[in-house]
Amino acid sequence: MSLEQQLTRGYVVCIYPVNRAACPNELVLELVDDPEAGKATRLLKFSGIGNYSEQWDEEADHEGLQSLIGLDEYPEDEWTRYVIAMDEVEIIFTSAETPVIVEL
Prior knowledge:
By secondary structure, the protein is mainly beta.
């Protein structure tokens, strides 16, 4: 089962925008199963990340809830490249560590 399938469980998942200032080699995404409730129900944690980039739409709301459109994984020999597509932003990075899903 792919990481995207584990996250979505067949449903739409929303994500709060990313703030990496506290720890630049980690990425923690707050996952929201019910956008109307607006409360994070799970965390997706990536550690040891590198080659990080974000590509925002010009008119993007950098603070609003974003719908997950896709999460692609491209394994290489020593690391995996991840591409996370949301409504208004695409995040691309690499990590040699396995991501962790934490239930809240």
